[in-house]
Every structure is written in structure tokens, then in C-alpha cells.
Amino acid sequence: MSDTLHIQHEVASHGHSGEPHVHHHKETFISKYIFSMDHKMIAKQFLVTGIIWAIIGGLFSVLFRLQLGFPDQNFPILETIFGRWAEGGKIKPEFYYALTTMHGTVLIFFVLTAGLSGTFANLLIPLQVGARDMASPFMNMLSYWFFFAGSIVMISSLFTQTGPAAGGWTVYPPLSALSQASQGSKSGMDLWIIAMTLFVASQLLGGLNYISTILNMRTKGMSMTRLPLTIWALLFTAILGVLSFPVLLSGLVLLMFDRHLGTSFYLSDIYIAGQALPNEGGSAILYQHLFWFLGHPEVYIIILPTMGLVSEILAINARKPIFGYMAMIASLMAICVLAFLVWAHHMFVTGLNPFLGSVFVLLTLLIAIPSAIKVFNWITTIWRGNLRFTPAMLFAIGFVSIFISGGLTGIWLGNSTIDIHLHDTMFVIAHFHIVMGVSAFFGMFAGIYHWYPKMFGRYMNNTLGYIHFWVTLASAYLIFWPMHYQGLAGMPRRYLDKSSWASFSQFHGLDAMISVVTIIAFSVQLMFVFNYFYSMYKGRRVRSQNPWDATTLEWTTPIHPGHGNWEGEIPEVHRWAYDYGKDGRDFIPQTEPIGENESEH
Amino acid sequence: MSTSIVSTQQHNKLHPHKFALWVAIASILMMFAGLTSAYVVKSNQTGWRSFVMPKIFWVSTVVIMVSSITMQMAVKAFKNRNMQQYRAMLGVTFVLGIAFVISQVFGFEALWENNVRFKGASGAGQFFWPITGLHALHVIGGVVALLIIFFRSVIGKTKTYNPVPVEVMSTYWHFVDGLWLYLMIFFLILG
Ligand code: HEM
Ligand SMILES: [Cu+2]
């Protein structure tokens, strides 16, 4: 294989000679920036691709919110952008469905899975466990390029004659299996499935690498219980992904068979346009089981990495050890296990056996326990700390607030009796946008502001960061809180036009308000993107190796680390990652041996 | 070559590439677990149509089991630094791999003749296609990998006797073999 790192040989052969071990690869523009095998460059590639996707996916929601907020109005700009799909400046119903589908798919998979895990797993795992690179840098590079290929296929579906896939990010059959059923089930659906297949391949290649790097390539002294929580969180994320994405793949393979080969895995007794189809004996519910066996773990694949990032950032900026380190690991593990056992809570209204349903209710509500433990520990970590309110810290605290708000509504939905009323309403939209969408974005922003100095050797602009935080926090609550009330009143999700229900006319003003705030929130994100790119070239330079006075290994590398990360030998680790405010010292790096009169934490 | 990513302190642990393979195997198993459990659930429903496995699949089974043995002999030869025999055994494994795929294709044709096809009502026959098709793809992937390490040993830049790539190869090969045995038994009992 070509995934060889030569540094180790150099270090082994003349490790103590005192020569600087700068890495002399012949690097061309292509090998450095495009087909790079350096985990730090791959992290940046994931992040930039994720940012581009977030702008596209976010813009879709702004545009369809325009229509939802002002149903009677025409917006010429919609016709300019979407052409015949928004003739006369009004979004067509089928196209609205396609837009929400793309919005969901793009943000859940391409931004909050690939963009988030791809960035921070790649950046932090080797740096924080003390490794030169991933177990297989070559597979790591492939992981990005599979993601990139999936992205191209997904984008291309926007430009087909019949438009992109529709039917929601879950693409349930029979709708998705029958191309005659809707525009969004034609070639757009094939491209969706192909793109997702490439995406799954990317996730598996990445996940294999993350797991084996964490378990096999830690530096001397870095026992599992000395790992920062970021690494624990990324480990469980990767395990979830590696075990659940293949099940989605099997569901999609069967879907492809039904679409093109005439099989009846998901189809039975269907009349379409007055014609009876020959399919018999299939079951659409089978797809839902296969989908949600991934779908539920997927939401934790999104949130676990941010839980890790937030734990780290809270401890560093409170100058206190993380509270309940072992409980944090145990609850991550509990979430990881339970995540595989609750998928049917998305299927309470499918005619699921009520007894089975009650088992899933129980297991679902159990997840609230480890979640609550984590929240408790975050709060006790910052309790009476010397808080440093950097933008990263604000976003981390905001994460905790938002995660609580969204978690509470999960408990509502987890009760099947309540869910029968709330399923497929705006209440579910509110629940998961708060607990997953906004929370994960907050965690990701916190991570970007915090590790930006490591990525680029410069800081992002703080003032813009503060504006970004406060406006985003306020808009998140303004946009999603009212949706709970709409859902409780029975307003369905995924509908463009609700004018035929007189009872929903009371929400006109509310919908308009939500749409206006959406536009504001989106522009503030564009400001963040500006800050991100501007600071790469014009940001304040980082002058010290360890700008946040943190204990972990990534801050023992040079300000601009080369491929291989450390110039000399990889440092040895002597203590856990959270010795803040210990024995009268502000912090003690992990590389410092335990003193004679010192007890390990 | 690829050992160089392992630093001195890590030598007592499992090589990361081997470990990664085990994780990959778990992942592939999840896909087949998804498919076969869907099959089991559906097979309890009324109107389920079953089918008979054509005899030729026994040939496939024997071929792939023998290829596992030759693969193991290749590993042993490699460890004894008997490169001549190593290449020979690798070659035999490669040929048996292709023979397996061809035998599968004959089996698929026999089934097609018996009217176990894609179209129409659901049943065991329909599940058979994606499950065995995906398995065949995994075997083909292994055959390609065999070809690559065969040529590498012929072109012979490998002066170092690093057994990791060969061991990774053999573990994967035994895995696709074991997976076929599982599927064969599965279809014999539940088909
Ligand atoms: C206290 C913990 C939680 C419980 C009890 C819970 C429960 C539920 C239930 C029962 C549903 C199905 C609602 C329906 O469709 O009728 C649901 C939907 C959802 N939940 Fe949660 N949830 C919890 C936390 C979370 C977390 C932490 C995330 C993500 C990070 C999340 C993401 C989602 C998503 C994405 C959906 C909607 C999927 C869709 O239909 O499109 N939930 N939740
Ligand atoms: Cu769920």
C-alpha cells in the first residue's frame, strides 16, 4: 500500500541525536492540498466541503420558508433561482417536497455527519492520542474522496429534468420505489441512492480508521482512561456508524431491486393511476425497520462528537477538571448501546404490536438517563469555575441549554400514547431541530472557534463570534419554539399549503415571524463563513504553542505542524487530560510526570 | 513498509491494519444480518414462496472451502520464506476464487431456469438475489486483492518479509468463505 509514513523510521534511527526531524516529502500542490494523506489537511477538506453543503442546504430552507411564511405572496427571486419549479414566483408542491428532502439529507448526512465527524475525528484523533497520522492515511484519503463523489452525484440530481429525490430524507417506499408515483421518484431517486451508497462507503472507510487509530496507535502512557472525552465520543460515534450504516445499505439495495428489477420487497397490492401492479407480498414497513436501524443511531452519530467537543471546551474554559469523567464515558457507552435498541420509536403509528411498542417506549425513555447524567456533569463542571467567555465557550454553554430543551420534548415523543397525536406534526420538527440540528451546530461552532488556532495558526475574529452566538441563540429559540405549539395543534409536517384547515389560520402571523427570523439567522451564518475564510489570511496570529493553556497533546505540536505532527519523538503521557486547578497550579499538561508528592487525580 | 506506521511501543498490540479488517468484517456482517433477518421475519408471513437450492451450489461450497486451505498454505509458505510455494499457492487460491464465481453464475442460471426470478410476488427467491449477489461482489473484491498481492510478489520489490498484508488477505478470504457457508446453510434450512 502507498500509505506509508516514513517519519517513524527517522525517529527510530536517530531519535535522540537532537537533530530536528522536519519532514522532507517532495510535496506538490496536488499532494499537499488535493490528494493529501495528512489527516489535518483531510480534516480541512471535510470542513470546507461541509461549509459549502451547509450553505446550500440552509439556503433551501430559507427559500421554502419564504413560501411557508407568506403563502399568498409571489417571490420573483424564487423563479429566478428555480425556474419552472417556481413558475410565477411560487414554489410548486412537488418541488417543495423535493426541497425539504434535499434540505434534510444534506444537513443530516453531508453536513452534520461527514462535515462534523470528518473534520474533528481527522483533526483531533491523531493529535490527541499522540500518533503521526491515522492507521491508514490512504484509506483516510479515500474516505474523503468517496464523500466528495457522493456530493457530486447528489448535486447533479438538482439539475436533472425531473428534479431531485422527494419523499423526505427517509425516502419511504412505496412512494420512493415507484417512479410513476411522483417526479421525485424518478432519476432523482436513483441519484439519491447512488450518492448515499458512496456516502456510506466513505463513512465506513473513515470509521474503520478512527476506531483502529484510537485503539491501536496511542502514544506511550496514553491509557484509555487518560484519553480526552473528545476521543471517547469519536470512538463511540465511529462504532455506531460502522455497525449501522451497512444496514441502511442493505435497505437501499432492496429498494434499488424494487425500483428496477420488478421485485416486491417493499411493494404489495398497489393501484397506481387506476392500474394494478403485479407486486405482491412485500411490506413497506420492512424498509422502515432497515432505515431506522440506521436512522436512530444516526442521530447519535451526529450528537456524540459534539458532546465530546463540548466536554473538552467547558473544562478548559472553566479551568476545572471535567466533572465525573468515568460517568461521562459510561453514559456515552450507554447511549451507544441503547441507540441500537430504540429504532421502532419512529414507527409507533405503523401498526406496531402495542406490547412491542411498550418495550420500545421503555428503552427509549431509558436514554434520558445517560443524557441527563451528561447534562448534570457539564453544569457541575462550569459550576463555580473561572469562566473564560470565549466564543467557543459561549457556544458550548449554548449547546447545553439547547440540548436540554430538545431532550425534554424527546420524552414526550417517546411515550407512544402521546406520539400517536404528535407523530408527523411540526412538534417532531421542533424536537429534532432543537436537540439535533441546532445543538450539533452549536457544538460544531464551538469546536471550530476553539481549534481554529490549531488548524490555521490564527484566531477567528471574536467580535463577529459574539454577534454570531447571540443572534443564533435567539433565532434558534424564536424559530423552533413556536413550532411545538403548531404541532400540538395538529399541524402536519412536510405540507406546503395548509390553507384548507381553518384552524391553522391562527398561525399565519407566527409563520411569517419564523420566516423572517430564518432569514436573519441565515445571514448571520454567512457572516460566520466570512469570518472563517477572512481569518485564514487576516486573523490575529497565534504566538504561543498553547494558546488556551490546555493540557492535551495537540498543543504540544508546533504552531504549524507538518505531516507527522511532532518534530522530535512523540511525547509520552503521564496523566489524564483534566488536571486544571490542581495543587495551586492553573493546569498541568498531560506530558508532565506525576510529581513526588502528587497523587494522580 | 506498512509496519512503519507502528511505533516501537506499539509492537505488542494487534497491527492496526489487522484490527481495521476485523472492524470491517463486523460491518459487512451487519449488512448480511440486516438482509437475513428481514428474510426471517418475512418468511413467517403467509404467501411466502420457497425454492430449492440447485446442486451446483455444493460445488461452489467445496471450491471455496478448498481455496481457504490453499490460502492458509500460502501464508505458511510465506512465513517459511518459501516464496516459490507462496506464489504457487496464491495462484491456486486466485484460480479457485474465480472458479467459485463462475460456479455461482451457473447456479444463478439454474435458478433462473427454475423460474426463481426478480419479477412478481415476494418470496425466498427474491431475497436470494441481492444476498448472494452481494456475497459474490465481496468474493470478487477478494479475487482482485489476491491478484494485486500476487503481482507484487512477482515484481518482487518486497525484500522485507512483512507478513501483515498476507495475513490480512487470508483473514478476509476465510471470512468470505465462512460467510458463504452461513448463507448456504441458511438457504438450505430456510429456503
Ligand atoms: C431524551 C431523549 C430522546 C427521546 C426520548 C427521543 C424520542 C423521539 C421520538 C419518540 C421520536 C419520533 C417522533 C415521531 O416521529 O413521531 C423522535 C424523533 C426524532 N428525534 Fe428524538 N428523542 C430523544 C433525543 C434525541 C436526540 C439526542 C436526537 C439527536 C441528536 C434526536 C433526534 C431525533 C430526530 C432526527 C427525529 C425525527 C426523525 C424524523 O422523523 O425525521 N432525538 N425522537
Ligand atoms: Cu430516534
Topology at a glance:
The complex is a heterodimer of chains A (601) and B (191).
Chain A (H helix, E strand, L loop, with lengths): L6 H8 L14 H6 L4 H31 L6 H7 L10 H37 L7 H20 L30 H30 L12 H32 L10 E2 L2 E2 L7 H35 L6 H15 L14 H13 L1 H15 L8 H24 L1 H7 L3 H31 L5 H27 L19 H31 L41 E3 L2 E3 L14
Chain B lengths: L15 H28 L12 H24 L3 H31 L10 H32 L8 H27 L1
The structure holds protoporphyrin IX containing FE and copper (II) ion.
CATH topology of chain B: Four Helix Bundle (Hemerythrin (Met), subunit A)
The tally of beta strands of chain A, per DSSP, is: 4
Under CATH at level 1, the class of chain B stands as Mainly Alpha
C-alpha end-to-end distance of chain B: 47 Å
Textual characterization of the structure:
The complex is a heterodimer of chains A (601) and B (191). Chain A has 17 helices and 4 strands. Chain A is mostly helical and 601 residues long. The longest helix of chain B is centred in the C-terminal third of the chain and has 32 residues, at 124-155. In chain B, 34% of the residues are buried. The model of chain B is unreliable at 1-11 (pLDDT under 50). Chains A and B meet through helix 1, helix 7, helix 8 and helix 9 of A and helix 1 and helix 4 of B. The complex binds protoporphyrin IX containing FE and copper (II) ion. Residues 299, 302-303, 345-346, 364, 367-368, 371, 407, 410-411, 413-414, 419, 422-423, 428, 431-432, 435-436 of chain A line the site of protoporphyrin IX containing FE.
Give the structure's gist in a few sentences.
Chain A is mainly α and 601 residues long. Chain A has helices at residues 7-14, 29-34, 39-69, 76-82, 93-129, 137-156, 187-216, 229-260, 284-318, 325-339, 354-366, 368-382, 391-414, 416-422, 426-456, 462-488, 508-538, and strands at 271-272, 275-276, 580-582, 585-587. Mean pLDDT of chain A is 92; it is low at 1-24.
